[in-house]
Each structure stands twice: as C-alpha cells, then as structure tokens.
Adenylate kinase isoenzyme 6 homolog (Cicer arietinum), 179 residues
Amino acid sequence: MVQESGRRQSPNILVTGTPGTGKTAMSTALAEATQLRHINIGDLVKKNNLHDGWDDELDSYIIDEDLVCDELEDVMEEGGNIVDYHGCDFFPERWFDCVVVLQTDNTILYDRLSKRGYKDSKLSNNVECEIFQVLLEEAKQSYAEDKVVAMESNNIEDISRNVATLTDWIRNWASPPQS
C-alpha cells in the first residue's frame, strides 16, 4: 500500500470481494477504529433508488453505476471514505488510495452463503468467482497494482488483523500540503 499524492485530507479505501467474504463486517470495524465514513453501496442503492429494478435470477437490485458514481462524486473528492461493494471496475480509479480485496476459503464461503439462503445457482456462481479470484483480477485490471492488496478473511481473527493493518496504514497516510 503506497501513499498516493492528492489533495484529500484522508484516504479513500475500497473494500471489495465476493459476497460473503466479510466486506461489511471489516468495513464497519475499520470505520469505528479510524472514524472514516463507511459507505455500503448496496444500502446506498436501496436507500436512494440508484437502480434499474430487481433481478429475480440474481436476487438483487440492478444497480445504475452512473447514478452511484454521481451520488458519490463530492463525498469521494473530500476523502475519508471506506466504500464496501462486491464490484470495483466502474468506480473512477482516482477515487481510491487503497483497494482491499477480501478472500475467503471456499468451504467457509460456501457455508456463509448457504446460511444466507442463497439459491444453488447464486451460491455456485459466487464460490466459482472466489475460486477463480475474479474480484482480485478485476481490481488489478481497474487500479494501479500498488494500490491493490489481497487480505485473507476466514474468521474474526483475520478481520481484526486486517483492521489493525489498515488502521496503521491510514495513520501513516498523509496528503501533501495544499497549494
């Protein structure tokens, strides 16, 4: 994780990964530890109707990526945000100083998604995404490689360790003096 020069007072972090990898749990804990703002994209889409309806097959909203980006533009320029979403390729690269991809062992992920009541097709699709590291590849293709970090997220100890690592990184992050 490399310090990025910019005008923000605080960094922006994207936490991404396959559904069930612990994005919201880790983002919530990190926000509490650092006083940064946690933005859960799924909640934002529902609250502000930033979608094009419901996909019955995927059992989720069809987000309107342009509306989401328009909604976030000002707050992202301010900095100090932890954005939590299972996709990452539609956000502007300039928004993020660090992109965290959470990864979970497939058997653990399968159990988590089963407990959520995921349909077989959705469960299989998400486990396959994790096996093939789809989100890690998407992050590496969408952002500078020095901004992307993969972190294990199998249990509460992993979440605690990740929060501690990221909290240290945030404390050491500094934007250059404003001109």
About this structure: Strands lie at 13-17, 37-40, 51-55, 60-63, 81-84, 98-103, 148-152.
